[in-house]
Amino acid sequence: MRRNRLRRTRIARAGAVAAAAALVATGCGGSADTSRTSDSSWPPTGGRGSCAVTKQPDVPATMRDGVVLKADVYRPQTTGKVPVILMRTQYGKEEAQIQPSRYQTPDWFASHCYLVVVQDIRGQGASGGTFTEFQNDMNDGYDSVEWAAALSGSNGKVGMYGSSYVGATQWLAAVSTPPHLTTIVPANTASDYYDGWTYEGGEFRLAFVEPWAMGTIGATAALDRGDKATAQQLQRDSGDYTRWLNFRPYQQFPPFHPGDPTVAPWFYDWIEHSSRDSFWKQWSIRDRYPNVKVPVLDFEGWYDAFLAGGTQNFSGMVAGGGTPEARANQRLVIGPWDHVGWGRPGANVSAPMLDTLGQVGSSPINDLMLAWYDHFLKGKDDKVSGQPRVDYFLMGANRWKSATAWPLPNTRWTSYYLSGPGGVGLAGRAGALSTDAPKAQQPDTYDYDPLDPVPSAGGHSCCGADSGPQGPYDQYVVEQRSDVLTYTTAPVSSDTEITGPVQLKLWAASTARDTDFTAKLVAVAPDGSSINLNNGIIRTAYRDSLENPSPIDPGKPYQYTIDIWPTSYLVKAGYRIRVEVSSSDYPQFAPNPNTGEPFGRSANTQLATQTIYHDPDHQSALILPIIPAGDNGTETFPIEH
């Protein structure tokens, strides 16, 4: 059974390559640039500033509890005092997130007359102490900002940068309100470390969490404490991660040595705390926006693992940031990227569509954040801020557009109701999406087997092309399964922009006391090829609350709200819009065992029969953010207002 499931996944990925590439040429608008080069030239050597730079390795900083953290300090040769740019990383200060094709070097930023500090966080790299994910990054972040501000040659203003967990270290520092922190520039990071990081809609984000925890933070923490044998074992296991994705129960996950508190007790804490309880709330960013009193420049990707949290951070800070300056100076950039593929040549992106966009899809992060720092740390009038702003890449048109709010101010929320038989029958698939409310009709049913889950074909996982499912792929193979229902519009009569968060209001029942429902938004080309725009999931016990889950009554219909993560796509005339409905998306999410037992403690599973309703009393509907025709955008990224 497991071999069949993995074979389906490989078939779905392989079959998607040609179809997705074809969709770029025919359906994404604009021409695809196929003249990409390898990343051997990254980072580019041009654009350096006027300052010569020297490096001081392993500069110590003592935290409030006596633990010493180490940083590399890059000093510009200048007589005046200069601002500080600080990165706090768990991925190695020597790497400084330069590859795969991400940031310019610390030396490059320092050449623009900044004092650049790249620090290993506690328990990682050269730094002392014991590593525990999230645990120390508020206090250590505060202390490190204030230490950096007091370095010789500093003018006392500190900005921060970095992606993924290195984005989290910025937010966790910012919510502790260090007085010398002036701005942060996080990328690809979340608003909450339960919802949208470790779990989503109450379900465990399997393909991200396990490989990432094994191959990076688990292995490097073992090296830091001198346990080379465990580090090597974790590196081997992460190299064969598909072997472990199917292991149950999670509380006995062998690679992390259950029962040995020195290896990865934090992983088992994540499993034990499967609801958004006080364990997770102690670090939540979205609960603490009033504490953040600095401007924020945030970068996200349409297929990134933390996109939803990034958009929430922007809108949350605009509404509730701690100062008028902070609320007015929020800027969000969303591009055609997955977690580590930022449109760079040869950056090892997950999906061919993203790798063929050309220069228009390349992230402007280095130039824009340098202009941002020049404005907020040096006082230059670079016209990079002054009011809330969203810059977003409209896929399907391959152009950049800008707005003043998220969701976009001119959004027309439009309901498309599910109707007709969404499953395979004598007439094939006849499930429809229409703005007309449904009439009396029979519900659809399918069986969900946790031992044979629907394979992931793209998505918004993490972290690299060879691990979590990311990016756009053709969905043909997935849509042939009997446990995947599809509902599709008629061909649209004119080009239609969909930009913003999406929801599926789904009426459904199950024979289980706890199960999952999934939804995927898909664009369908005239030739029948279909591409995923984004997806979402809800664990039924979490339908009303992420904090207080409760079982459902078998056989009883409930209305579920499935948050399909945001997208931006121009659906061209003649194309159709589709939603897929199912109960699994593996390995992006852990398959729900349908038993209602506490999460992660058992390997038991059972079959569930799912019923999807779409009638006058149960109006299941896809809610789309339609943007009226108007601004066509630009072919180059607009750095200035």
Structure, explained:
The protein has helices spanning 2-27, 106-110, 137-149, 165-174, 206-224, 228-239, 242-245, 265-272, 278-281, 307-320, 324-328, 352-355, 365-378, 476-479; strands spanning 53-62, 68-76, 82-89, 115-120, 154-163, 181-187, 199-200, 203-204, 296-301, 330-335, 389-394, 399-403, 412-419, 432-434, 444-448, 459-460, 470-471, 485-488, 496-510, 516-524, 530-539, 558-571, 576-582, 608-613, 621-627. The radius of gyration is 24 Å and the shape is globular. It has 641 residues and is α+β, with helices and mostly antiparallel strands. Residues 1-39 have low confidence and may be disordered.
SSE layout and pairing:
Elements: H1 2-27, E1 53-62, E2 68-76, E3 82-89, H2 106-110, E4 115-120, H3 137-149, E5 154-163, H4 165-174, E6 181-187, E7 199-200, E8 203-204, H5 206-224, H6 228-239, H7 242-245, H8 265-272, H9 278-281, E9 296-301, H10 307-320, H11 324-328, E10 330-335, H12 352-355, H13 365-378, E11 389-394, E12 399-403, E13 412-419, E14 432-434, E15 444-448, E16 459-460, E17 470-471, H14 476-479, E18 485-488, E19 496-510, E20 516-524, E21 530-539, E22 558-571, E23 576-582, E24 608-613, E25 621-627
Parallel strand pairs: 3-4, 3-5, 5-6, 6-9, 9-10, 10-11
Antiparallel strand pairs: 1-2, 2-4, 7-8, 11-12, 13-14, 13-25, 15-24, 16-17, 18-23, 19-22, 19-24, 19-25, 20-21, 20-23
Largest sheet: 10 strands, mixed
As a percent range, the share of helical residues equals 10-25%
Shape: globular
Residue stretches low in confidence (pLDDT < 50, at least 5 long) are 1-39
Radius of gyration: 24 Å
**Strands, count:** 25
The end-to-end distance, rounded to whole angstroms, is 56 Å
Average pLDDT score:
91
Q: Name the strands of the widest sheet in spatial order.
A: 1-2-4-3-5-6-9-10-11-12
Helix-strand makeup class = alpha+beta
Number of helices: 14
Query: What is the percentage of strand-forming residues?
Result: 25-35%
